[in-house]
């Protein structure tokens, strides 16, 4: 079966769990920015957790199904409609051949995920079906969807559990969205380039997400960070925020010109010459992913032990999700 | 010279081998990451060597972070100053049309973001580096080989470090504000690094010219890309060869016909003899392309 794209939405891409092993050549992991919503959407329709889905940003697409299927929409609050009739989110529902799936306006979060039983079956490139737009790689022809595209749907690589409509994520396992969020970070990388005051400003400021927020990075405004005076080392450049070009961890927070921190996300540029002062915990990248422009954000410091404890909590929640949808 | 280790959240370790750029630091990064690739402990996800630093991504559910860091520190000890390490690599010839019409058109569009709004990127770079003319500057840029010290930023973009003593290195600042456009395969320059932009897009490096040679081919249709879609690897040694418009057009026709190949030859690069006699070593290195 296939899905025809009648309207593409603002920027709808095919994404899965992402690709690893090529970051040293500048090819980032890509994959769903909100990995928890990806997992939930796939489990709802009986797919494997990492199968390919559609990631829809701010404004949903309009899609026509050529055969009956089971569909689920998770992530951002963007009510799905089948032939104009509302359907629940975080719950699987059936569509028939010829049915049109569309979406109401976004009322919370930023990115919705649409899973279809069988998974979106674009070719696997370097181990993943995810779109990496900057490199025109993977996904559907290496780019966001356009009107007229026809997406193949697979026969499924799921665990074989029965595909049923009406399967639902329990309320306590659904993500809720707020315009005020906390994002847990570990300080480090080049944070020694900040003065004690600059460091305190970073952690004390309520940052606001600017409209410059995409799969590469999320830019925040709020304050200028004070840096330590220094003689620039050879090759680093003159600005106090410059470094000899270094690798950028996914989730790292760079601060060009000591203003407007940028959280690098899953389509990150893999390296460059700006100081990074902290890294978002891998699990909290989901929180960043669901931030819409204007979201007030506090960066909260945790240490490695704290980060590993939060990671264990996430794992436990994933386990509960799997059990609930088994 | 002891490295600085830092956690990059719960999945990355970042290691800065030196604050300033040098071939020694780059060689250490390469030697350590090559050794790590051979040991490849379970739970290691990505190994990224960079100019004077490197990072690894790991899965802390499989690999204990402290054990990993101890392993990296041990490798740092073992590799030492890496001056006795020999690196099997390639010498490549990249043809460059300096002062080409496409980057010239682009740089004129972004003059308001430049240090020298009345000049061009190459006239500015020539002047601040003390060259009497643009031709002399081009001769310096293309006259000695470059060591690929990092691949990244975007897919397959090589950073290159000039293989000359520091007092002869070209250094230029980046644009005051980055451009929103850079032609594909622009030969750029920022700080002490030359680069080749692998795809069209944003950029902050000064633009000196363009090459017809594709360096990233996600469709893997050209013969240089049968093994992989990214051409450059860290450690590749590059010689830029200035060409004229006729030769550029002829190469472009070869690219379109699917026959173009980057000239290359295998070499072994050793740091100590290079540092002892850079000019003599470079001359021998480039003979393999002759």
UniProtKB/TrEMBL annotation, chain A:
Residues 24-317 form the Carboxyltransferase domain. Keywords: ATP-binding, Hydrolase, Nucleotide-binding. Pfam families: CT_A_B (PF02626). It comes from the Bacteria. NCBIfam families: urea_amlyse_rel. This is Biotin-dependent carboxyltransferase.
From TrEMBL, chain B:
The keyword Oxidoreductase does not apply. One of its GO terms (molecular function) is hydrolase activity. Keywords: Hydrolase. Residues 3-223 form the Carboxyltransferase domain. The keyword Hydrolase applies. InterPro entries: CT_C_D (IPR003833), PxpB (IPR010016). PANTHER family: 5-OXOPROLINASE SUBUNIT B (PTHR34698). This is Allophanate hydrolase subunit 1.
């Amino acid at each position: 079966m296939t899905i025809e794209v009648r309207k593409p939405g603002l920027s709808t891409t095919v994404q899965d769990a992402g690709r690893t092993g090529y970051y040293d050549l500048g090819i980032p992991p890509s994959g769903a920015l909100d990995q928890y919503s990806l997992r939930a959407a796939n489990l709802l329709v009986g797919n494997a957790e990492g199968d390919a889905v559609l990631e829809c940003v701010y404004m949903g697409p309009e899609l026509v199904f050529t055969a009956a299927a089971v569909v689920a929409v998770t992530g951002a609050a963007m009510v799905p409609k089948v032939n104009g009739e509302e359907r629940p989110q975080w719950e699987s529902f059936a569509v028939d051949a010829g049915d049109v799936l569309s979406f109401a306006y976004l009322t919370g979060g930023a990115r919705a995920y649409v899973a279809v039983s069988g998974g979106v079956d674009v070719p696997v490139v370097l181990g993943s079906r995810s779109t990496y737009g900057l490199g025109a790689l993977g996904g559907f022809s290496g780019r966001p969807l356009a009107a007229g595209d026809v997406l193949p749907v697979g026969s499924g690589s799921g665990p074989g559990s029965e595909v049923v409509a009406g399967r639902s994520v329990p309320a306590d396992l659904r993500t809720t969205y707020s315009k005020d969020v906390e994002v847990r970070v570990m300080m480090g990388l080049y944070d020694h380039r900040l003065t004690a005051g600059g460091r305190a400003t970073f952690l004390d400021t309520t940052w606001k997400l600017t409209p410059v927020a995409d799969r590469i990075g999320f830019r925040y405004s709020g304050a200028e960070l004070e840096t330590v005076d220094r003689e620039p080392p050879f090759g680093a450049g003159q600005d106090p925020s410059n470094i000899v070009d270094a690798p950028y961890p996914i989730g790292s927070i760079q601060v060009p010109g000591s203003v407007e921190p940028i959280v690098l996300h899953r389509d990150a540029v893999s390296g460059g010459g700006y100081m990074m002062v902290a890294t978002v915990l891998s699990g909290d990248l989901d929180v960043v992913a669901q931030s819409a422009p204007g979201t007030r954000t506090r960066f909260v410091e945790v240490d490695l032990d704290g980060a590993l404890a939060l990671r264990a909590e996430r794992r436990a929640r994933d386990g509960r999700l799997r059990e609930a949808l088994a | 010279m002891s490295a600085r280790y830092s956690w990059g959240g719960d999945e990355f370790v970042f290691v800065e081998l030196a604050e300033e750029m040098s071939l020694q630091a780059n060689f250490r990064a390469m030697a350590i990451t090559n050794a790590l690739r051979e040991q490849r402990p379970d739970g290691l996800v990505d190994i990224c060597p960079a100019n004077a630093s490197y990072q690894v991504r790991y899965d802390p559910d499989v690999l204990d972070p402290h054990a990993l860091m101890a392993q990296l520190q041990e490798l740092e000890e073992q590799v030492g100053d890496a001056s006795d390490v020999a690196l099997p690599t390639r010498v490549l010839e990249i043809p460059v049309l300096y002062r080409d019409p496409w980057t010239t058109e682009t740089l004129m569009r972004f003059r308001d973001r430049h240090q020298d709004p009345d000049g061009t990127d190459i006239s500015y770079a020539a002047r601040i580096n003390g060259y009497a003319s643009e031709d002399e500057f081009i001769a310096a840029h293309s006259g000695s080989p470059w060591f690929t010290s990092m691949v990244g930023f975007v897919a397959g973009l090589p950073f290159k470090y000039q293989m000359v003593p520091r007092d002869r290195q070209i250094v230029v600042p980046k644009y005051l504000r980055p451009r929103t456009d850079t032609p594909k395969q622009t030969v750029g320059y920022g700080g002490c690094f030359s680069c080749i932009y692998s795809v069209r897009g944003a950029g902050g490096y000064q633009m000196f010219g363009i090459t017809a040679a594709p360096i990233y081919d996600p469709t893997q249709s050209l013969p240089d890309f049968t093994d992989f879609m990214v051409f450059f690897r860290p450690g590749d040694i590059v010689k830029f060869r200035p060409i004229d418009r006729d030769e550029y057009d002829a190469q472009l026709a070869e690219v379109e016909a699917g026959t173009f190949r980057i000239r290359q030859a295998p070499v072994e690069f050793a740091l100590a003899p290079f540092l002892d006699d850079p000019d003599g070593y470079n001359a021998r290195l480039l003979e393999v392309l002759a």
